[in-house]
Design brief:
Keywords: Hydrolase. This protein has 127 residues and is of the alpha+beta class. It is built from 3 helices and 5 strands. It starts with a helix and ends with a strand.
Length: 127
Amino acid sequence: MCALPFAAAAVTAPRIQLQLLCRGLAAAMSTARPLKSVDYEVFGRVQGVCFRMYTEDEARKIGVVGWVKNTSKGTVTGQVQGPEEKVNSMKSWLSNVGSPSSRIDRTTFSNEKTISKLEYSNFTIRY
């Protein structure tokens, strides 16, 4: 009977230490990897070619959050947020790749800034 409390403590202690370690690592990662936010607009043949669907898919693969939507002037606009290197990957995709049937003439980026936390929990298509 006496060994039981010690056994419970032996199982609980590593779990608590692991939780503290994970919290510390998460805090270290968040300070080491600044979060960025950027607005974008893509010009060219980007409507009617599944551009938004491919953008959503690519954003989720890369691991960024934000949104994408068609505009009334025939462009696609949106916002991307995440770690700087992932946002840069998405910027490159928006500038050079797009959907298979699209033609990207140019992509503009604006309001690029460092943020303290993400404003979105996923990447969505807006209508």
